[in-house]
Structure formats: structure tokens, C-alpha cells
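Data availability (excerpt). The following record was deposited with the supplementary files.
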Amino acid sequence: ALGDITISDGYELSLRKEGKGSDGPGYSFVVKWKTHTSSSEKASQVPQGWCSDSLIQKLDEKERSEFDQHCSVYTEKGWWKKVEKDDVELSEIRRSHPVGTIFPVKQSLMKSTRIRPVADMRAANLASPMVSAVQPTVLAAGRVLRGTLRRGVQVRQYDLEKAFYSIGTEVMDAKTGKCTPVYLRIGKDLFQCSKLAFGLSVGPHALNCSQRIIQKVARCAYDVLKGAQCRDVFPTIVVVMDDFVVA
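Predicted structure:
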């Protein structure tokens, strides 16, 4: 592992080698944090791993197929692994681990994606340190971009594919000191999640920090490879979540 860089109070980011069988780049960022016990008053107001089966059953055949197809992207890559346990063991997992719920949301007819899986991670976030993402707003990114525009400048926009899932998770139970996985409930099934699930409050911040590190490495490599006498100017790069604007 390389790093263990503190990115916010209670959160650390490191770079680790991927295990065998991974179809990724060989290394991935991992965000690490400790859970804590939520106050009984707040915990009672937040459902822990509620069942979304009734919402899924209300989908028509085409909608259900699209929802299942979206979820299969994560299960086929091994980011979500189904937990095969009896009812008693599943109940114990939901009681003692951070559990979120995946449920379907219908989007506008104007959207290419009609049914999108959404995660309710309120219970997991309540047991995690508070964090907020510090990154440019879309308006601020637009101002930076306009400031670089001049004749001959090319502007390109890139979107990182499944960006959150390039970052692993290592959640530590503050009581036991042991790793406690994040679980996701889809209908009546339970899945163990090994990557940064959307809906976790640390997600945008961890993603932003990892992209800043990559940007700094790219800048250093550019300076070394091009040399100080090179007339080329390092491109202006504005990052908003998983969108890169390069000018």
C-alpha cells in the first residue's frame, strides 16, 4: 500500500495493488474510515437496510429488465457479491454492519435511462464521520473554462466510466477494530460491496481527491518528459465529480 493520506477528518486514502483476476489497471485507490455508534434518537429516524422488494415488484417487465441489467453491471464485475446465508445470519448482518438499500427510480421520458438504481445509504452515513466535498461548482468550472478560451485552443470533455468503482473501501468498526464490509440490499437479497457505493457521503470527496492526485502526477510527468525549455503549456484541467474538461 502507498499513501494513507488524510483527506478529511476520519478518512484516509491510499493506493493498493489489486488482487488476482481483476480486469482493472492493477492498482486502485482505497478509502478507509472508522464507524461509530449513532445516537439512538438519530438512528431511530433512519431505516437500516429496508426492503425495496415492493418497489421492484411494481415495475413492469421492461422496467424490471432495465433495473436488473443496471444491477448486473456491478454483480458481474464482482463489486457486489451476493451473500448466501440463512435468515438468522442475514438479520445479524443487517443489525451489526453498515447496510444500504438499492431501489428503482423512474426518470423522465427525455432520459435515455428510464429506470435507475439509487442507493439509500443514510444509516451507513450516520455511522460514518461527517464529510463534505470541496470541488468547483459547474458555474465555477465554466468561468475557468471561459478564461482559457482563445484562438487555436481545443476543449474536450471526458467522463470517467463507473468512477466510484475505481475506489475500494475499508471500513473499520471502532468497537472491534476489525474490518466491517458495507452491504447493499436489493429487494430480498443482500450483497457485500467492496467498492465505493454511490450514496455514501464520502464518495464525492474521495473521488475528487483521487482525481487531484492523478492530475498532480500527470503534471509532474509532463514537466519531466517535456523539459523546462518546452514551449508547450500544461493544459487547463477542470474536474467536477467524474467529468474532466481539458483546454
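Summary of structural features: Residues 203-226 form the longest helix (24 residues).
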